Structure formats: C-alpha cells, structure tokens
Amino acid sequence: MRSALFNGLFWPSLAIFAIAAWLASFLPWRSPLISVMHAACRTVRWLMHRVMGIEVEIRGTPPRQQPVIIASKHQSWADGFIQMSLLGDLNFVIGNGIETFPLVSRIVAKSGAVMVASPGLRGAEGALQAALEKAADDPRPMLIFPEGGLAEVGEAKRYRKGVHLMYETLNRPVVPVAHNLGLRWPQNQWTKFPGPAVIEFLDPIPPGLPRDAFLPRLQVTIESRTRDLEAEGLAARSAEQEASS
Q1: Mean pLDDT of the chain
Q2: Element at 195 (helix H, strand E)
Q3: pLDDT by residue (tens digit) across 202-243?
Q4: Nearest Cα to 51, choosing from 243, 235, 237, 193?
Q5: Interior/surface letters 171-210, b for 16+ CB within 10 angstroms, e for the rest
C-alpha cells in the first residue's frame, strides 16, 4: 500500500518538476533551472521519509561547494536525488539512457551536466573528455557513478575508466560514497521498503595516483564499506520483521 501511494505521488511530481525545469531551461539564467532541480530532489527525499517511511542517515561530511570528484555506489534511483538534495549546485555525469524520458536532454544540457554513452548505447562518445576540458575551472563538485549503471544489492560491477579520466584530467581529490539505499529502494523497482538507510561520505583519495593504483583503491573502498552498510541494513530489517511478528 505504501509503495503504491509513494509511486502515485512520485511520478506525477517528477513530471511536474520536469515540465517546470524544461520551461526554466529557456531562460537566459541557469539559476532558476537549478532551483527547480533542487526542489524536485528535496521533494523526493520528503516523500521517501514521510510517505514511504525511509529514514536516510547521512554519515561523513557532504563536500558542498568544493572542487572534488564524488564517486558513488549506484544501486538505487534514490541516491542521485539524495545527493543532489545534500550537495546543492553540482556537476554530474549521466548516461544517455536517460534520454528515453521526455524533455530530459535539454534539461541536462542546460544544467551543465555531462551526458555520456551508457553501457550498450551509442551517441555520446567523447562527451566526457570534452566536458572535462570545460570543467577545469569549474569549482563545483562533480558526481559520477563509476559502475556506469545500477547494481543489485551485494553486487560489484566493473568500475569504468571514466572516473580515472576525471581524476587524472582534473587533478582533484575523489570522495568515495557508499550506501545501502538499495535495501529500501531497489534499483528502479516499483516496490520500496520502509526503514532506515545510510549514505556515507568516506575519506578523500588524494590526486596523483596512477590508474592501476587508483581504480582498485576506489573500488575496494566503496565496495567494502557498502557491504558493511548492507549487513547493517539487513540486520535492521530482520529486527523489524521480528518486532512485527
């Protein structure tokens, strides 16, 4: 029942915000569009908490307005909404699979975000390198999902080379992010589950590491902590089930 109510509010709200963002994208200023996008993300977070009963705990320090690369685990649609609600104005990398949603291409382009080719799709090759050249003097944090797509809870996909290209080109620290949001909002599934979830900003990886040192370190850091948070979340779920039985 809760999932049906949540989805019945989530999708119409998202459609309204998408139309508002698309209209704002025609204005000569970027700030109205960003304000609409942030309002959408805050609304989704509110719906998660108030309607679905998903209580998200933030651990670590979100690097607002800092010139860093944020490399996040990606196992739920929720993580993008949560992170934008926390981080304010940021740049982000998104796969061109999102183009299946109406109005999105223009919104992404006007927001200053980077659209790259999703695994198995074509049409945005070279976009990341071109965007990085433009982003060299951009002080905003840049968000990327190194796996390039959604992973199941407990799954670790191959970390793609784009995150190292960003790290090497921009010469910025990388802030790894682990979470267990997939236990509450699995990937992009209709059914969600109430209860606590955690998103954790971990210690930055300093710039300057070679690729064969950087990628394994990033993956081990994110995946090991994600497994810990998944175990924590599963224990909380078991306790909830026992209390309700």
Answers
A1: 88
A2: strand 195-201
A3: 999 999 999 999 999 999 999 999 999 999 999 887 777 667
A4: 193
A5: ebbbbbbbbbbbbbbbeeeeebbbbbbbbbbbebbeeebe
Give CA–CA dist 90/104, Å, rounded.
Answer: 17
> What number does CATH give the domain 55-244?
3.40.1130.10
Question: Taking the CB of residue 155, how many other CB atoms lie within 10 A of it?
Answer: 12
CA distance 29 to 112: 12
Least confident of 60-69, 100-109, 178-187: 100-109
**Full-model pTM:** 0.89
Q: What ranges do the domains of the chain cover?
A: 55-244
The crossing angle, in degrees rounded to 10, of helices 2-24 and 31-50 is 180
According to DSSP, residue 168 is labeled H
